[in-house]
Amino acid sequence: MNAWLKEASRFPLRHRGGLIAVALLSLASVGFNLLLPWPMKLIVDHVLANRPLPGDWPLLPGWLGELNRPQQLFWLAGASAAAFLLVRLTEMVRATLAARIGRAMQYELGGRMFSHLQSLSPAFHARARTGDLVRRTAMDSKCVDELFVGICIPAITA
Question: How far is the C-alpha of 30 from the C-alpha of 127, rounded, in Å?
């Protein structure tokens, strides 16, 4: 295995539980997004059209069909709002967790780069520009966050 790939794979392996949680939250968000149009479909096709609600839907409670039209409208509008909030909450938790894991990997890589720079000879530091080394340590360490959280997780969940 390539030495670079072996070294780079250590960062996501340390955070594999969190990365799996981010991937699962991404998939859950997709599933919850699929629920969003259904309450509105029931409102338009059945409640507003004054037709009975279908009795063969597994997610539709049976007691909803026994209510009058304004009550059905109230419960279906509430279900639509709840589904929307569930999607947004899932996406918020996923984004927060992904940012936290990405920053942790970024700080680990930056720390390893800084430790490596400290182990280099004084002759190297006499030749190298200090500003360039500081920028590379601070900014280039973000690549691990972008690689695993910004590219790999979306590619897997797509």
Answer: 52
Give me the DSSP letters along 122-155: HHHHHHS-HHHHHHHHHHGGGHHHIIIIIIIHHH
Residue the block writes with tokens 């690689």: 147
> pTM, whole model, 2 decimals?
0.76
Whose structure tokens read 């589904």? 83
- C-alpha 138/C-alpha 129 separation (Å) is 15
| Angle 12-116-111 from CA coordinates, rounded to 5° | 45
Task: Specify whether the backbone of 122 is left (phi greater than 0), alpha (psi in -120 to 50) or beta.
Answer: alpha
Query: Cα separations (Å) of 131 from 125, 128, 134, 135, 137?
Result: 11, 9, 5, 6, 10
Q: What pLDDT, in 10s, does the model give residues 21-64?
A: 998 999 999 999 998 998 998 899 888 888 887 877 776 777 87
pLDDT in tens, 87-131: 999 999 999 999 999 888 888 888 888 888 888 888 887 888 878
